[in-house]
Design goal:
CATH architecture of the largest domain: Roll
Number of strands: 5
Strand order of the largest sheet: 2-1-5-3-4
Number of domains: 2
CATH topology of the largest domain: Ubiquitin-like (UB roll)
Radius of gyration: 15 Å
Distance between the termini: 50 Å
Number of helices: 5
Order of helices and strands: EEHEEEHHHH
Strand content: 15-25%
Shape: globular
């Protein structure tokens, strides 16, 4: 049995048949070929699969594709506009906010919403806000530095 869903991802509307048990992360990666969204743990603990759905940062490994029917979704591939990196992407690049890069798309997606919702975000708020996103390579110093830089670039006073 399949269910027809319609989702708009990165500005493109897709109508696809999916099995009701298909996780959104698998739909994005396997069905649509948008592999920037990573699968880390499948238990909602690492945050590598974080995307934006209807204006909120969510973990796509904990959401069924059928739950996204009618939604507006942005993945890491859709964050840049007209060939220009989003300020958060640029700040991660400029401030070495990554090492292996596996967690980076989820970190950037989570951090973007953190800053959008709190432009004057503090280091303490950044660290608290990233508790659901794990990086096994860094001590988070450059990640926090990147987010603070992006907050300034996005109009905040961090």
């Amino acid at each position: 049995m399949t269910v027809n869903i319609s989702v708009t991802i990165n500005g493109t509307t897709y109508q696809k048949d999916v099995e009701p048990r298909t996780l959104l992360v698998h739909f994005i990666r396997d069905t649509l070929g948008l592999t920037g969204t990573n699968i880390g743990c499948d238990t909602v603990q690492c945050g590598a699969c974080t995307i934006h759905m209807d204006g909120m940062a969510i973990k796509s490994c904990a959401t069924l594709a059928v739950q996204a029917d009618g939604s507006q979704i942005t993945t890491i591939e859709g964050l840049a506009k007209d060939g220009e990196l989003h300020p958060m992407q640029q700040a991660f690049w400029d401030n070495h906010g990554l090492q292996c890069g596996y967690c980076t798309p989820g970190m950037i997606m989570a951090a973007t919403k953190l800053v959008e919702n709190n432009p004057g975000i503090t280091e303490e708020e950044i660290r608290h806000g990233l508790e659901g996103n794990l990086c096994r390579c860094t001590g988070y110093a450059n990640i926090v530095k990147s987010i603070k830089a992006a907050a300034q670039a996005m109009g905040g006073g961090a």
